Amino acid sequence: MSNNGYRIREKLDSEYRIVCPSGHTSLSAAETTETAYCRACGRSYPFEELVDQRWDDAGRDP
């Protein structure tokens, strides 16, 4: 698993920080792949499709 995968898993623990492309926060990380399941959408998304709500406009983590 990539370092980015570990970072996403850590951020998923922060309530409302990571959302799916539709803006839902009901995400659970898969244990063996770099995907997260959104209970609201009923589907899994690759980590690279998830949105970090704390990123500023320049794409930096504050």
Along the chain, the helix and strand elements come as HEEEEE
Beta-strand share of residues: 15-25%
Shape: globular
- Count the beta strands: 5
Largest sheet entry: 3 strands, antiparallel
Task: Summarize this entry quickly.
The strands form two sheets. The chain has a three-stranded antiparallel sheet, with no helix packed on it. The protein has a two-stranded antiparallel ribbon with strand order 1-5. 16% of the residues lie in helices and 24% in strands. The chain is built from one helix and five strands, in the order H-E-E-E-E-E.
What would you say this structure looks like, in words?
16% of the residues lie in helices and 24% in strands. It has 62 residues and is an alpha+beta fold. The strands form two sheets. Strands 2-3-4 form a three-stranded antiparallel sheet, with no helix packed on it. A two-stranded antiparallel sheet has the order 1-5. Strand 2 and strand 3 form a beta hairpin. The longest helix is centred in the N-terminal third of the chain and has 10 residues, at 3-12.
List the helices and strands and how they pair.
Blueprint: H1 3-12, E1 18-19, E2 27-29, E3 35-38, E4 43-46, E5 51-52
List keywords for this structure.
two-stranded antiparallel sheet; three-stranded antiparallel sheet; 5 strands; 62 residues; alpha+beta; 1 helix
